[in-house]
Task: structure prediction
Amino acid sequence: MRRRLMAAVAATVAGLLTLTACGGDGGGAAQGTQGGGGEKKVEVFSWWTGPGEADGLKAMREIFQKNNAGLEFFDAAVAGGSGDKARALLTTKLQAGDPPDTFQGHAGAELQGYIKAGQLEPVNFLYDELKLKEVFPQQLIDQISVRGDIYSVPVNIHRSNVMWFNPGVLKEAGVAEVPKTIPEFVTALDKVKKAGKVPLAIGSEWTMVHLLESVLLGSLGTDAYNALWAANADWSGPAMTKALNDFKTVLSYAGDPADDWQPAAKQVADGQAAFTVMGDWAYGYFHNPPDGGLGKKSKTDFDWAPSPGTAGTFMWLSDSFTLPKGAPNRDGAVAWLKVAASKEGQDAFNPKKGSIPARKDADTSLYTDYLADALKDWGSNKLAGSIQHGVVVNDAWRTAINEAVGLFHEDKDVAALQSSLAEAAKNSGQ
Ligand code: GAL
Result:
């Protein structure tokens, strides 16, 4: 691996009480119990329930079932893009000593939080047995390790800084060139507004933080963005003020917030909106056949480019699976981790998920269209880590950023946002 990987809204307790696991098989079964056919259940906790999210999980689940006759996959996914709701429930479960058998966690600062809290078992034994150190990029392994112990199995690499757009809507609005810079983006958004369409589709609150990270990267530049995560980083200077003003301008073109990222992306696919800035899980949603996806035609119904100002940089994140301490069905969890780590598992999961494999030896012929671009850029671009998806900030810091952005959406006060972000950085304890 060629270069350095850079290193939520808090759900209320009341909200948590209403959250239920998806329970793909009817739900409600206790962990570690026998299934109807005598199989032992393996509770897999994620947030991949929605359209464009569930297809990849299903593909990996099928391999798991095929390879593990005595085990039954129990889908404990909790709905809600970006997993804010899932993580809030997970936190209460872990604190109550009631872990699932395995759960999804982002490589980087988010995972380091679980490690520091002593909630995970190292999985070095799996890396040894399956020779995984040879197949995962070393610097990705660094993001999931503490003092030589490795704590998860990365299943993919996603890209956060993608601008999705509807070519027909751009044409109608007279936007001849795909915007490459933030000023060009603002000009394009304005043209779409004048043409009477929604310039920028946006979803629930976390999607605004997702947009913020792309605007920060595009406005500050990669080196200054990556420097934000060091101790005593400068969040109070004029470059940050300018970046936040850019964010304010871009956000002023957003339509009414949709419920989550899928309905926002759908506005683009259906030609109601021109642009949305979203991670490449949106590709799975646009591209996969119904019902899992929208079955849209690439380059005709939807198209993509790096978010404005970020060409040449891949803002990355990685989903990984863990072995929680006290997993009721530890053997079952290990069986799941083996599928997640395998070439077969990753090559089944990722083409559907809209991600590229974390393994270096995947079958590249399976990654076509958008995914071929992603593979190429992952191998050649500069890297930056995602804020919203757990790479550069821990959960507490991210929650503070989410709250600041939530307030900003109401009051549009750039100075207040900047001081809240500076305060969040100072108090992050990272
Ligand atoms: C991210 C996750 C992706 C995708 C996305 C939208 O946090 O890493 O795999 O699920 O949220 O829900």
